[in-house]
Design a protein that fits this description.
Blueprint (H helix, E strand, L loop, with lengths): L3 H9 L4 E3 L9 E6 L5 E7 L3 E3 L3 H9 L7 H16 L3 E8 L2 E8 L6 H5 L5
Antiparallel strand pairs: 1-4, 2-3, 3-5, 5-6
């Protein structure tokens, strides 16, 4: 029998990471992926020690897309929690949209701020 903790670990294991090649820099990574049900997921983050490997975001979303979160609010919260846990980014924003409904979740490390970088994002 799978426990909730085991299911979370299996889900997060799909988020493969690698060392950040530009650890001393603040730079923005943006990823977008569409799901079969028309949901669109966008992620932007400023990496710290780790970055996602190429294809990891799409693989992760394809795997959890079948879990069918009841709401896009629940999906956004789960994504934010999983990505924060695996990446520990300096800053991260997740946007989940389906139809005319959109949810944006954002988080950052304590004491991290780079207004000139974040101001370039405009309306995420």
């Amino acid at each position: 029998m799978q426990t909730e903790g085991n299911l979370i670990s299996l889900r997060r294991a799909r988020l493969k990471t690698a060392p950040n090649p530009g650890r001393k820099l603040d730079y923005l990574v943006g990823l977008t992926h569409g799901l079969d049900d028309g949901t669109r997921v966008e992620m932007r983050y400023v990496p710290d020690k780790r970055v996602l490997t190429e294809g990891a975001f799409a693989d992760y979303l394809a795997a959890i897309g079948h879990d069918g979160a009841a709401t896009i609010e629940a999906a956004a919260a789960t994504l934010l929690d999983d990505l924060n846990n695996e990446l520990v980014p300096r800053w991260i924003a997740i946007s989940v949209a389906r139809g005319g409904h959109r949810v944006l979740c954002e988080d950052r490390q304590p004491n991290w701020d780079n207004p000139s970088l974040l101001d370039r994002l405009g309306g995420l």
